[in-house]
Amino acid sequence: MATVELVEYDAAPPEVRAIYDEIRAVRKTDFINNFWKGLANNPDQLRRTWEGIKEVMAPGALDPLTKELIYIAVSVANKCEYCIHSHTAAARSKGMTDPQYAELMSVIGMAHSTNGLVTTMQIRVDDVFKVGKQ
Amino acid sequence: MATVELVEYDAAPPEVRAIYDEIRAVRKTDFINNFWKGLANNPDQLRRTWEGIKEVMAPGALDPLTKELIYIAVSVANKCEYCIHSHTAAARSKGMTDPQYAELMSVIGMAHSTNGLVTTMQIRVDDVFKVGKQ
Amino acid sequence: MATVELVEYDAAPPEVRAIYDEIRAVRKTDFINNFWKGLANNPDQLRRTWEGIKEVMAPGALDPLTKELIYIAVSVANKCEYCIHSHTAAARSKGMTDPQYAELMSVIGMAHSTNGLVTTMQIRVDDVFKVGKQ
Amino acid sequence: MATVELVEYDAAPPEVRAIYDEIRAVRKTDFINNFWKGLANNPDQLRRTWEGIKEVMAPGALDPLTKELIYIAVSVANKCEYCIHSHTAAARSKGMTDPQYAELMSVIGMAHSTNGLVTTMQIRVDDVFKVGKQ
Amino acid sequence: MATVELVEYDAAPPEVRAIYDEIRAVRKTDFINNFWKGLANNPDQLRRTWEGIKEVMAPGALDPLTKELIYIAVSVANKCEYCIHSHTAAARSKGMTDPQYAELMSVIGMAHSTNGLVTTMQIRVDDVFKVGKQ
Amino acid sequence: MATVELVEYDAAPPEVRAIYDEIRAVRKTDFINNFWKGLANNPDQLRRTWEGIKEVMAPGALDPLTKELIYIAVSVANKCEYCIHSHTAAARSKGMTDPQYAELMSVIGMAHSTNGLVTTMQIRVDDVFKVGKQ
After folding, report:
1. Global pTM?
2. Which of B88, D39, E47, F92 has the most CB atoms lying inside 10 A of its own CB?
3. Which residues from chain A sit within 8 angstroms of residue D70, using beta carbons?
4. Residues of F in contact with C79 (CB under 8 A)
């Protein structure tokens, strides 16, 4: 039901295969998920997105699991079914426990609720919360 | 510019004051932010929301800072200006460093991008990502 | 801070004035709010939108106040600041009481919360809820 | 396709069964819809959500059908497929007629349109619409 | 899985058939897509929407293909699966090439990303970008 | 009111200055808008975003003005005030006429409306619109 055909490894041009190979190497799995197979219709977009993901999701000041939880939260608020499934699976593979998932869900639910309440009332930002001078 | 008047402590009915007092005690500050003052027009809603926040944001399987990062992520995707400011301030007060904030921002930006790409292509969820039987 | 100039009555071309006159007559007020003054840069869009609003918001199977409550609910979920303010004012002018507004807000908050929870879990629609055969 | 397993009555722990029993009693039906079965993975979240729904959706200053119409409106703007189906079914069971549904749909469509137009033009809120002093 | 029954030509009342006939004539095809068959439950809404679409999507200062690209962009950001599929098909039928589609996707992805980054940082609008005086 | 301080040229570290210099060269102006000054708190994010923008917004299968119209459309649907202002200004500087802007606005308004209607009815995608086999 995608709006594009998925590009399988065997049918992929060399620059796509090279990225598929790198995804497999970095992720230590032969599996290439559909997102990349769709993006591969546009090799520049595939490369740019993969470079970004690799850089952004690497361990840093935040650990990889925390980054997946944030990714799930954005994907839920943005209603991206595929992204919710793929990043929930990624979070589990990075060690997310059931109690952690339950709390993630509770925070997401609460944030949606207060987002809706604040927006209804159009509450003005307290001066004390303003950090930037501009 | 709110659609409601803010209920200040001195003008608040007893059931509202009791919750303001508890917010102050739990948060160890005299400051009551505008969100609560707006909600106080509806004491039941104030009580229910405060009870929920207290329960959900308490330390648990996820630490309080991680919960604030998730809260910011949802609030950004939901475009709630007040919530973004108040939870960014809360995250800083709970120890969020500048490098952590920079990475939070990078993950949020990346998630928005891939959410948009996936949605454009209407990519089908890979079977391997499906956890539930239903 | 609009991206367009507002078209005031005295500077408006005849086809815009005619619609301004009709808005004034239908609403029994001389006041023309900024939305119409912005749309007036594009007289066809102004006419089409006014005709639609007039038809849709008229009393029918749903009373005008209920329609304003629904309008507020959509505008909150769509994060349209102007629309929230203007339709909250319209609802008050059509008789919305403070307790009704408090309940509207509670339903909006609850709906946002369960929308977020359902989306996180990607719950499948129960067969019993499906009405259409297609 | 959910990200969680659904918790059926017979497999549920006692605190979940107690809430299922109450849902059945309040709604006068044996049917427990999938939303609750998903939430039941997190009994605290289940309890908190059910208590909130029971309180918010009860008859009050707004009648139960009006509340369902508002719930549908939010769920549409938030693109929650499950919520749209379940609350449309609930509205019908509470007496929503076809002409009422047609008008609900018209208001939702019109609100989306003007939300989009206002946001494109970034129209400033008229002073007369501002209720709160802050 | 729709919340309404689809109204087929043979079962449609005369005012619906008249619009179906006009859609067929304007589009030079016998095919009526499901959107119109759903709207036909509410003939006024069907007529108003068709009149609007016909007027808005006609060639003008922007060519029909550019209008379809804009329509896809909005539908993606609004997460409307049906609209994404139907307008992507429409764009292809109006001549959208694969390289154009790839660039459309890249712009949509980039816009989502910077929308998310700007919203996270709550960047103030530069004075130079402000066109309207109000 | 930003959540970050803006990084001005004179206070910027060398790697940020280098990107500011390139932005100025590519855009043929000394002006650096606030978005880049906010991103500059995170030089990697600044570089990655600028590289992406430069590549994506360059002339290609779609002309630069068409890309700006698409950018505006996404930014409106995503409710990003800053992005709407900055890309509307960019579109004007690339030659967008008033009639083109009026038509852009009409398409955005219409798309929001039908997005809302389709989502309310949960219309199933017609088979004929499905391009991909998967």
Report:
1. 0.96
2. D39
3. none
4. 79
